[in-house]
Amino acid sequence: MEKIVEFSHVSVEFPGVRANDDVSFSVNKGEIFALVGENGAGKSTLMNVLYGIHTPASGEVFVKGEKVTKFDPKEAIRRGIGMVHQHFMLVPSFTVAENIVLSREPKKGILCDRKEERRQVADLSREYGLEVNPDDIVGDLSVGLQQRVEILKTLYRGADVLILDEPTAVLTPQETAELFAVLRRVVAERGMTVILITHKLYEVKEISDRVGVMRRGKLMGIHETASVTAEQLAELMVGREMAPTPEKEELTLGEAALEISDLHADNNRGQEALNGLSLQVRRGEIVGIAAIEGNGQSELLEAVAGMRPYRGKITVNGTDVAGKTPGEIRKLGLSHVPEDRLSTGVDKDASVSDNLLAGKEKEPEFSAHGIHLHPKAIRSYAQKLYEAFDIRGAGIDVTAGSLSGGNMQKVVIAREMSFGSQVLLIAQPTRGVDIGAVEFIHGQIRAQRAGGAAILLSSADLDEVLSLSDRILTVYEGKITGEFFPPYSKTEIGLGMTGTSKEAAHE
């Protein structure tokens, strides 16, 4: 096998952290290579070295047999390395074509040739089976289509090694299947090499040829995917045997803590996203929302949290929240884990400590009259949460933006669950989170339920909804299309998610 990428004794250091520790392995031409590990294990850091974002403290990197001496994204692109990051780097107001050719526009004289730009993008999308409309505005596209644009952008720049960082974290099962079909095709027909950074071990088993396991910056081994089980990979990742999923405790339901009646709300484009939706969540239960992205589940949670205008009635712990701010609704006993941790979950430029304290700054324990802060009390509180929720990084004083995606998520979870709220809105609780952290976060959600909280849960991961929920509501085009109780039928829930009844499916 021809080695297309090789790492030789590579170490990467940041202040207080050795992110990669003497890592050596190679990736073969024309294979799908998976790299797995917990958040903070060093997977993304290592791939950022390959893409030229980070420079190793020691060791060597080879691409196509040539030693890399300059670590720079432009140099990586010149060598045929393309990377699609977990958080997309697109310009929302630009068209698909403009995003793909950005900085490499075809020219007609000194001006951009828009007709040629559209033609090149249309041809490229057809060639790789990644159909997109060159004229669509990127900000109007689904996450799955935005990812296609990111991949096409790398291919337009001549990539023959494609790095995908958590590519399915924001995709529906259908979009994941489409992506995998594309990856298999570009490998089989184009001889491309794909490096897949992921936490989802069943996807590793489905798509990869070989898999590398990292733990705390070290490479734990390389395995032929067919020769290792998902359970064995999980244990290598976390360094211990994984606990089985606990049996659901018997429900002890209290009164309805969250009631929603005839809810209407628009999406960001002014189109109706919720169309007369009604539901209630009682204390001591988890109600899961199962829906394909873009069917109103995001707008539902944002409306309840006070982040989106709506028509209809919402009560939290018996109080109508109409006209109240998110801060006022929080004081009624509601906590909210938003779906986008970067835009609404954390302040990435603020310290981990400040993010953990957010919403409690004016409490007497932490400030005098809400003005003069008590630094010692704040540090002690933040450190306790940091340790209790197993947040991994360089400590509470670094910026939240310096953490891995999974550890950012732990910061949000820790903060929101620390309020002791009776109503919890939880969106995408484990998006981009490793298997060990998933186990931990799910345990925290179950503990909140056992403590009597009413939890409304939304996740693009249907298996997560099935695992956690005591009751599942399917939503399609802003309406509830079905209500389901255990034991769940994945088929029937899937039909509800598409607005199709069981009877109609058999007609």
For the record, the CATH class of the largest domain is Alpha Beta
User: Strands of the largest sheet, in order across it?
Assistant: 6-9-10-3-11-12
CATH topology of the largest domain: Rossmann fold
The number of domains is 2
Mean pLDDT, rounded to whole units? 88
Distance between the termini: 52 Å
Number of extended strands = 24
Task: Describe the model.
This protein has 507 residues and is an alpha/beta fold. The chain folds into two domains: 3-238, P-loop containing nucleotide triphosphate hydrolases (Rossmann fold), CATH 3.40.50.300; 256-505, Rossmann fold (3-Layer(aba) Sandwich), CATH 3.40.50. Strands 6-9-10-3-11-12 form a six-stranded mixed β-sheet, with helices on both faces. A hairpin with a 2-residue loop joins strand 11 and strand 12. The termini are far apart.
Quick synopsis:
The chain is α/β, with parallel strands linked by helices. It is globular.
Give the SSE map.
Layout: E1 3-14, E2 17-28, E3 32-37, H1 43-50, E4 58-63, E5 66-67, H2 73-78, E6 81-84, H3 96-101, E7 107-108, E8 111-112, H4 114-127, H5 143-156, E9 161-165, H6 173-190, E10 193-197, H7 201-207, E11 210-215, E12 218-224, H8 230-238, E13 256-266, E14 272-282, E15 286-290, H9 297-304, E16 311-316, E17 319-320, H10 326-331, E18 334-337, H11 341-345, H12 352-357, E19 367-368, E20 372-373, H13 375-388, H14 405-417, E21 423-427, H15 435-450, E22 454-458, H16 462-468, E23 471-476, E24 479-484, H17 490-497, H18 502-505
Parallel strand pairs: 3-10, 3-11, 6-9, 9-10, 15-22, 15-23, 18-21, 21-22
Antiparallel strand pairs: 1-2, 1-4, 4-5, 7-8, 11-12, 13-14, 13-16, 16-17, 19-20, 23-24
Helix pairs in contact: 14-15
